[in-house]
Design a protein that fits this description.
The complex is a heterodimer. Chain A contains 25 helices and eight strands. Chain A is mainly alpha-helical. The chains are: A mainly alpha, B alpha/beta.
């Protein structure tokens, strides 16, 4: 019997616990672990070295810390994390990384990565998820009807159901459980709202437990759970039909959990005129290559219909291959729990670990692992093909080691994250010298150089600028600009655009102007000790002449490059000089305009700091409305210049 | 940096992202000013899920009430015609066929060789079912608009570019387009007030930004990072052209989102910024209640196609639209137990546009929608030696020749099959690959 949750378990939840419906959780015991406060508990990874010593430049631990903070948690490292890393190098970095991985923001990022595959966010909003379920199977499904704040409860319930798959993944990771449990879990997860819908009988008086937003493991009465496989969200997102007979689901199982594309097994054309082969999926050579693999796994899904409803007495088709996996048949007595049987076998297949590694590698680096190289002329590879083959071999060695360590850790997902961010693919900073063409081919997979997604860019703006790009409740990159900036809606648009185009460049420019407009004045409204962008300079500091690069301006430019772009540059670096020159240039234009009364002293309306951009609180006396020396607008130009920079838009 | 200089540099980097590139190399190859595109506008209209040609342009009706396992429920005698074209007697289809038959080329009996959605979509829109090939829309965009900011507009359908073109999503919100076309203005088009009081300041920021990117590109040595910088460089070229697109928008966009997308795409084309657009409409994968759900959807699809042509006419570019209509595959020549139809590898495509001879049907199927072999020169059904089954490769080889896709792309993305005179007589040098 697992221990009860340490957090206060309310009466409602306790009832369910007693009824055996709520799985007792063991997620409240903060185990002693490697952290910035407990460096002595850290066991360092052996790392991966640099396979191209002398050619490939890797990030310093401090640079890597910043990258990881923004990539995984959408924040900059804390002062303690920076200090630990500056002083202790890899030890400080890994300790900081472990701390980050116990934050909810980390899990939000992981859920984002996995939603790109599972696309179950399609069911967020309205009753999109609720409508997939049947009250015959879930008598208390619409428990919120008749409640006082029915709309809010309906929304919470729907979204809790919609997020079942992603929250199960998060639950497993959050509690350091073996990642195998995403398939083998004999439970599902629900928050206080969706639990009310999943379990209970109609009319049952149910009170939402404490911490209703928290996801806890539950068991739905009469339904055999097999992690993601038995989730009605997964089953509906990848549906079946009378004629499809779960083949689509089987294909997705191979793709997601074994990293295998059944369609690529044999690109065999089918012949519509070949009507003399009876039961072609079993006997036609053109069909058998794929169907012999796919159909037995399809049989494991037989207990779940097209809506994901469970049938305790399923019957498989006589004209299809017997259910099973990997040549092992599913015993008939286990037909009703075929998914549980399948799940146990899937996770023991080496493909499961590899698929997990590859999915996360893609999610974190933005690039798929390399494929084997097939020379155009068999036996006579070109220099380019040889170089690509060497690149493939190097990567296979590294990813193979990542996989081995992941398995050794007991399939602990956090270990996997650590290993991937330590690979040279994630750590590459640049090349140390110009390369010959085939050297470039060999090095072509290093460096993430990844265009940030709308979600990542949105988080980064907040993290580094002290402002957000949005109004009232909306973040523009998550709403009106989401799809145009390459995002997805998990429904009709399911592929991200990963390369910038003219529209995306325009969005980035608009963002830069608008965020600069708000962030600069808002920052100068703060006490200098609390500033995010300008901690060391007064709003009124101005050059004495257009071509005089004042020391304070150079220092402020250095700070902005570090804060916004992660660039630590000397005061006489050409980039710092260019930035300071831009400040001076805009200031000079502004001075001329002010003196000629062509430009107002007041900031444009949207750029005035009347409220804190993050909290919305009125700034009162600290409001910034005027810019009598044109210095604020000159800084806005500089910040806009940096926010539209390549290094800001990419990681 | 002026637009011409951008295009000059961009022209050399548009060739392929895997090639090493440097600013010096690009400049050494000289600059050439890219002109706004003025060729035909390719509109690819995709019926997502697998449409039923036997309920559309390759009609198969039942002989009588007593026919068992009919292909369709309508009667053979009710099949309609417009010129040489036959079409299914579905309410709402008449306007399209009657208005456009004289311009329409129908290709029936195309064997996609697959029942898989992903493969089918790839096959019908690229000529190959396996992954890795660009959509025809992308190939054409890459051929004629590699320097253009919106050479390919992706609003559904098959959008794989394989790196030959840049796809953009434009949407249907005119206000949003104005905000993107004028990023320094606070609230365009309602007001011209800028965040920076002076255009000189906006230009100073833009110039500084572009110069910094050039410095970064000059010192970056890792090819992956350099390619990413190249792409941003090219994307910024496109940013400037958005301003021209909004100038061509109609005063009021259609309330229907998809029609508004068509209007926006046409505006981009008229601005010289776009070569092709890929549009999609879903709802065709009718494994249940086929007649009830699929037939009205086909009518909606044809209405959208009509709207493309009508709107192009309103905007004065009707004679420059090449419209290509297709779907993943076809549907079974019978109903399943749920009165639905399942996947069937035989499909049809419909095309019209300048240079396409209309009022023609090429290819054929038998009464159960099985493909018939045809004479490769006349396209008439034939069992003689040398007769062939029409495939997606045949169609795409012909489309590539018709669109004058260059040899560099043809060799990079080779297709099997042979050349057929789908769009006119073959030159003497045509061959099978």
């Amino acid at each position: 019997m697992k221990r009860l949750c340490k957090t206060r378990t309310s009466g409602a939840a306790l009832n369910l616990l007693v009824a055996g419906l709520l799985v007792a959780c063991s997620d409240d015991d903060p185990k002693a672990r490697c952290s910035v406060k407990s460096l002595q508990l850290c066991q360092l990874s052996p790392g991966y070295g640099n396979p191209y010593e002398g050619q490939l430049d890797l990030m310093s631990w401090t640079q890597l810390l910043r990258k990881v903070g923004l990539e995984l948690n959408g924040r900059l490292p804390s002062a303690a994390e920076r200090s630990a890393t500056d002083v202790h190098g890899q030890l400080g970095f890994e300790a900081s990384l472990w701390d980050m991985m116990y934050e909810e923001a980390f899990l939000d990022r992981i859920k984002e990565i996995y939603n790109d595959s599972f696309l179950t966010d399609k069911y967020l909003g309205g009753e999109n998820a609720v409508s997939l379920l049947d009250v015959k199977d879930y008598p208390n499904l619409k428990w919120y009807e008749g409640a006082k704040d029915k709309d809010r409860l309906r929304e919470r319930t729907n979204d809790g159901i919609a997020r079942e798959v992603l929250e199960l993944i998060a639950y497993v990771i959050r509690n350091d459980r073996s990642f195998k449990e995403i398939l083998t879990a004999d439970y599902t997860v629900a928050n206080g709202y969706s639990a009310s819908a999943f379990i209970g009988y109609k009319g049952m008086r149910f009170r939402v437990p404490d911490e209703p937003e928290r996801y806890r493991p539950i068991r739905v009465p009469g339904r055999p759970h097999a992690g993601i496989l038995s989730s009605p969200m997964f089953l509906n997102r990848f549906p079946t039909s009378d004629t499809n007979r779960n083949r689509h689901r089987a294909r997705m199982v191979y793709q997601f959990f074994l990293g295998s594309d059944i369609n690529a097994l044999g690109d065999r054309p089918i012949d519509a005129n070949a009507t003399d082969v009876q039961n072609p999926t079993r006997y036609d050579p053109a069909c058998v290559t794929c169907h012999s693999v796919m159909d037995p796994v399809a049989g494991a899904f037989q207990a779940f219909n097209e809506k994901g409803a469970f049938d305790a007495k399923p019957k498989w088709y006589d004209d299809m291959r017997p259910p099973g996996f990997g040549g092992e048949p599913l015993p008939e007595k286990d037909f009703h729990r075929g998914l549980q049987w399948l799940a146990r076998r899937l996770v023991e297949n080496p493909g499961f670990a590899q698929a997990t590694v590859y999915a996360l590698f893609r999610g974190l680096t933005g690039q798929a692992p390399l494929s084997p190289v097939k020379p155009v002329v068999p036996g006579s590879p070109t220099a380019e093909e040889l170089a690509l083959d060497r690149a493939f071999q190097v990567q296979q060695n590294i990813l193979g080691t990542v996989q081995a360590r992941f398995v050794e850790s007991g399939y602990n997902f956090k270990f996997l994250i650590r290993e991937i961010v330590l690979t040279p693919y994630f750590r590459a900073a640049g090349a140390l010298r110009p390369m010959l063409p085939d050297e470039e081919q060999e090095m072509s997979s290093f460096g993430t150089a990844r265009l940030l997604t709308p979600e990542q860019l949105n988080r980064k703006i907040r993290a580094v600028s002290g402002a957000r790009w949005g109004d009232d409740g909306d973040d523009y990159l998550l709403e009106e600009y989401r799809l145009f900036y390459g995002g997805i809606d998990s429904d009709l648009v399911t592929q991200r655009i990963e390369e910038p185009n003219g529209v995306m460049a325009a969005i980035a420019q608009r963002m830069a102007h608008e965020v600069a407009c708000r962030a600069v004045s808002a920052d100068f409204a703060r006490d200098s000790g609390a500033r995010v962008l300008f901690p060391g300079i007064d709003a009124g500091t101005q050059p004495s002449a257009p071509n005089e690069l004042r020391g304070e301006v150079l220092s402020a430019a250095q700070y902005l490059h570090a804060q916004l772009l992660g660039e630590e540059l000397a005061a006489d670096d050409p980039e710092i000089l260019a930035t300071a020159t831009l400040f001076n240039k805009v200031w000079a234009i502004g001075q001329e305009g002010l003196q000629a009364n062509r430009f107002p002293k007041e900031l444009p309306e949207p750029c005035r700091a009347n409220r804190d951009p993050l909290t919305g609180k009125d700034l009162g006396e600290r409001r910034v409305v005027e810019d009598p020396y044109y210095t604020l607008r000159a800084w806005m130009a500089v910040v806009s210049y940096l926010l539209s920079d390549y290094r800001f838009l990419h990681e | 940096m002026k637009r011409r200089e951008f295009f000059g540099v961009a022209g050399t980097v548009g060739l392929g992202l895997s090639l090493p590139w440097s600013l010096r190399e690009a400049r050494a190859q000289g600059t050439s000013a890219a002109q706004p595109y003025s060729g035909p506008f390719w509109v690819m209209l995709h019926a997502s899920g697998g449409w039923d040609p036997t309920s559309l342009c390759d009609p198969k009706g039942r002989a009588n009430e007593g026919e068992r396992d009919p292909v369709n429920m309508y009667f053979r005698g009710d099949i309609r015609s417009a010129g040489n074209l036959l079409y299914a007697p579905v309410e709402g289809m008449d306007p399209f066929f009657q208005n456009y038959a004289s311009r329409l080329l129908v290709i029936n009996g195309i064997d996609t060789t697959t029942n898989g959605h992903d493969q089918g979509v790839r096959g019908v829109w690229s000529g190959r079912t396996a992954e890795g090939y660009p959509a025809l829309a992308a190939l054409i965009a890459g051929t004629y608009g590699s320097n253009l900011p919106m050479s390919l507009i992706n609003s559904g359908g098959y959008g794989q570019t394989a790196g030959v073109a840049r796809a953009v999503r434009l949407g249907e919100d005119a206000n949003l387009l104005y905000r993107l076309a004028r990023p320094a203005q606070v609230d365009p088009p309602r007001s011209t007030r800028s965040y920076f009081d002076s255009e000189a300041i906006v230009q100073a920021v833009g110039q500084a930004r572009d110069e910094r990117l050039q410095r970064q590109m000059a010192r970056t040595l890792l090819p992956r990072m350099r390619n990413a910088q190249n792409r941003l460089f090219l994307a910024r070229v496109g940013e400037r052209d958005l301003a021209q697109v909004v100038d061509f928008l109609p005063a009021q966009l259609d309330r229907d989102g998809q029609r508004a997308q068509v209007q926006v795409a046409l505006a981009a084309y008229r601005a010289g910024a776009s070569v092709s657009v890929s549009l999609g409409m879903g709802g065709f994968d009718t494994h249940g209640n086929h007649d009830q759900d699929h037939l009205p959807r086909l009518v909606q699809f044809l209405n959208l196609a009509s709207f493309v042509l009508e709107e192009a006419d309103r905007q004065g570019v009707a004679d420059r639209i090449v419209l290509v209509m297709g779907s993943d595959f076809g549907r079974t020549p019978n109903y399943n137990s749920g009165r639905g139809k399942d996947h069937w590898p035989i499909t049809s495509m419909m095309l019209l546009g300048p240079g396409i001879q209309g009022n023609r049907v090429l290819g054929a199927t038998n009464e159960r929608h099985g493909p018939l072999k045809i004479d490769p020169n006349t396209f008439a059904p034939s069992e003689a030696a040398g007769s062939i089954k029409l495939s997606i490769e045949h169609v795409h080889r012909a489309l590539r020749r018709f669109a004058v896709v260059p040899d560099t792309y043809v060799r990079r993305f080779p297709l099997g099959g042979q050349d057929l005179p789908i769009f006119g007589p073959l030159p003497a040098t045509s061959s099978a690959t």
